[in-house]
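Help needed: design a sequence for this.
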């Protein structure tokens, strides 16, 4: 595990992101990590609840990068790459993780992990949920786990791999900027030209994937021309 992280472990907690937010407001330093065996009030993006039984990885990472807040959204792509690396490290070698904009990780078309980014003053909190043993069944999309794909993992082992990979990507981001992160993310996502549908601002738009803009915004080619989507999700 990267030495830049300090882990605070809880057997059960409401939400690791809420605890990380509290710690951020109290001045907790860069690299503070809240890890819980189980969440009773876990949440994902767009106010969705996050299925959080024991047996999966739930953690929130507090980062104080010193960069402008306008660059904070780039951190979700670093986290997504770290998650994808972790998933592939735990699964049979032939299985690849795919990344779905803005921050989901899929295996064989099923969601295996999600990421929630929140800002607290100058601190960015990255919440990550990775399905190791359990996956929700009462959702409108396919889900899967590490174990269901033939992987063998302990939750703590998965955590340590993830933090190590995230530390590496943070170093690249600081030294070389967002572009190498953007390129690696694109290599794990849809092919250019793939037909996708994006929900943004309460509207659904169909088009063809045209890549990521320099700041991570989704580029979508539609009959009306190229659209740039900053906030939303691909469905």
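Sure. Designed sequence:
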């Amino acid at each position: 595990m990267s030495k830049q992280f300090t882990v605070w472990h809880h057997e059960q907690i409401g939400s690791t992101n809420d605890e990380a937010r509290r710690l951020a407001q109290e001045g907790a330093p860069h690299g503070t990590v809240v890890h819980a065996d189980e969440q009773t009030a876990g949440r994902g993006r767009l106010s969705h609840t996050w299925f959080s039984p024991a047996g999966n990885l739930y953690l929130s990472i507090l980062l104080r990068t010193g960069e402008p807040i306008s660059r904070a959204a780039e951190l979700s792509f670093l986290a997504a790459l770290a998650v994808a690396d972790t998933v592939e490290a735990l699964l049979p070698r032939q299985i690849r993780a795919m990344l779905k904009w803005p921050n989901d990780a899929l295996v064989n078309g099923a969601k295996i992990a999600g990421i929630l980014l929140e800002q607290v003053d100058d601190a960015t909190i990255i919440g990550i949920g990775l399905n190791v043993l359990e996956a929700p069944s009462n959702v409108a999309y396919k889900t899967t786990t590490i174990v269901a794909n033939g992987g063998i993992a302990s939750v703590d082992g998965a955590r340590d791999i993830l933090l190590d990979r995230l530390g590496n990507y943070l170093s690249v981001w600081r030294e070389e900027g967002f572009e190498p992160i953007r390129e690696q993310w694109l290599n794990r996502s849809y092919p250019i030209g793939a037909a996708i549908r994006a929900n943004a601002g309460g509207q659904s738009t169909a088009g063809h994937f045209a890549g990521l803009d320099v700041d991570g915004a989704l580029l979508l080619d539609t009959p009306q021309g190229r659209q740039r989507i900053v906030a939303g999700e691909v469905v």
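Residues 195-234 form a domain with the SH3 type barrels. fold (CATH 2.30.30).
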